[in-house]
Amino acid sequence: EIFEKNGTIIKFVTPSGRSVFRVKSQGRQSHKSQAQEVGIPGSGTEYYSVFSDFCTCPAFYYYTIQRPDSFYCKHLLACRLAEVLHKHETKEISDAEFAGVANAFLLYQ
């Protein structure tokens, strides 16, 4: 369901090959996204940042970090499926913008 809607998953890629996904939340409002903190266009409070093996959603923290009952949240799984099925948009950002996303996440924690 997450990757079936247009614009729901966007993969931001850098010239050096790093990437981060932006996934639109399908329910309640999420916390202020790291993408919004550094000004990635189109980001807002209803988005989560998904790195290669990490998601900023509360479910990922609760189910995989606090008590490791599973390995993925639905956002991380959706990003993996979207990449395999080519069901995401791709946008280029600079390495500095990517660093800002990562730094904003570290500061948020």
Helical residues, percent? 25-40%
Rg from Cα: 13 Å
Strand content: 15-25%
- E-strand count: 5
Mean pLDDT across all amino acids: 76
Largest sheet: 5 strands, mixed
Summarize the entry for a quick read:
The protein is α+β, with helices and mostly antiparallel strands and 109 residues long. The chain has helices at residues 34-37, 58-66, 74-85, 95-108; strands at 9-13, 19-24, 47-51, 54-55, 89-92.
Describe the protein:
By secondary structure, the chain is an alpha+beta fold. It contains 4 helices and 5 strands. The chain has a 5-stranded mixed β-sheet. The longest helix is centred in the last third of the chain and has 14 residues, at 95-108. The chain is globular and about 35 Å long. The chain starts with 8 loop residues before the first strand and ends with a helix. Mean pLDDT is 76; it is low at 38-45.
Please name the defining characteristics of this protein.
5-stranded mixed beta sheet, alpha+beta, 109 residues
Please outline the helices and strands.
Layout: E1 9-13, E2 19-24, H1 34-37, E3 47-51, E4 54-55, H2 58-66, H3 74-85, E5 89-92, H4 95-108
Parallel strand pairs: 1-5
Antiparallel strand pairs: 1-2, 2-3, 3-4
